[in-house]
Amino acid sequence: MTNDLHQMAKDISAGWALAETCVDAWNGRRGLVTQKYLPRFTSESEESYKGRLRIAKCSNVFRQAIRGLVNRPFSRPVVVNGQDEIKSWAENVDGRGADMHQFAKRAFESAVVSGWGMIVVDYPPAPENLTEAEARRLSLRPYALLIEAKYILEVRSEYIGGNEQIIYLRYYAGRASNGTDTGRIRIMEMRDGKPVWSDWERMIDGDEWLQVASGQYVGMDELPLVPLMFADRDGMTWAIEPPMIDAADAQVELMQAETDHKHTMTLTAHPMLVGRGVRFPDKMRVGPSQALSFEPVKSETGHMLMPEVDWISPGAAELEHMAKVAQADADRVRELAMQPLVQPASARLVAAVNASERNAMTQAQAWAHIAAHAMTHVCVLAARWMDIEADGIDVSIHTDFTADLGSSDFKDVLAMYQDGALSLRTLLAEAKRRSLLAPNVDIDREEAEVAAALEPLPSDMQGGEG
User: Fold this and answer.
1) Per residue in 222-275, pLDDT tens?
2) What angle do CA 372, 378, 379 make, to 5 degrees?
3) Bridge partners, residue 279, by sequence
4) List of residues 6+ apart from 73 with CB closer than 8 A
5) Cα 345 from chain centroid (whole Å)
6) Fewer CB within a 10 Å sphere, N or C end of the chain?
7) Backbone angles phi, psi at 330, to 5 degrees
8) pTM to 2 decimals?
């Protein structure tokens, strides 16, 4: 038993760590400001390096761009279709108050950053032979738990009946029951054809692990979990490279460029003093309201040298260039982070989407479809826990958000209508799709009213010569 990453996950875990550090609301500001990402200069003293770390600057463009991307598919509410029990359950998916829209958005962002994650649909421990009425009285209900990639330690899968199924999942499940940082590990696995779980905690005074709890997923014939994957796996392994790793690397370069610029600006505000023909005292004070005194120096021939005192600091041209480099790095982070909105989805990602939905999708649209399918499976597992019919359950996430990027192209649609290439119904539908019309606009009624307005007046109402 160990809490270490499995070898196939170790190879890519550095990418997870970098992407997570860039996007994290707290660490994103200072988490990059470490010797790993802001290395120490050759011959730089410890004191100077610590001073450079203290003034380091990190504008988290990566986090802003990622959240802008994530907001696209969640600009409209997530829709859950199915039985009333499922719709009610979807109002509190995780048992902590998050509805399906909030939970799906959080899972989506995690998968965008890390490439993947797992969603476990569990049920609280309950006495055997518990009736439905007793379960309601005890407020027992299934709940969904998002396991982010950084907490997944090992995954195993194999083909069963022609389909790949996960047969083993080991993940970090939080602090130990005694409140220490030794940690708790949960193992979900298929054992003798039955889905079971066990919790393990490490002894405080050693590396020995003890099993502290275990159980079976009663009523299930497979592990109640749903993988959410936004990137391709490395063959049959579960090593998955974060799709936004290039943007994360660019964020590191931005932090380095901004820090170099700020450090140079600091040197400009506090330049170095240089003198020729003078002898400065061993200790001297410089700055506002300080007078400078020095001793003149004689040459080898005994003549007094003409004293020269000056300041050394970076020039304005160098500072301007460094500022432009930092701005270019910031623009590059934004461009790379928004690529999924315009870049066609990979063939393997599109293969995970229904054939009827595969037309020229961007990566972000493919991710939204995959997330919708995953959330549908989450609801199906919840229905199985509640012992209700799962037919008709479907979760819909907004995927037509490329039309939300702007309305400038609507002029072309309008021109096509004016040329007779499009019908009025299509024109109104496109306007509604681009949010130029309110969602509650009835296209049928609008079309009928326009048609009525264009009808000629009856002959007895038409004006004529008297």
Assistant:
1) 999 999 999 888 777 788 888 888 888 888 888 888 888 888 777 776 666 666
2) 95
3) 295
4) 108, 364, 365, 367, 368, 371, 397, 398, 399, 401
5) 18
6) C
7) -65, -45
8) 0.73
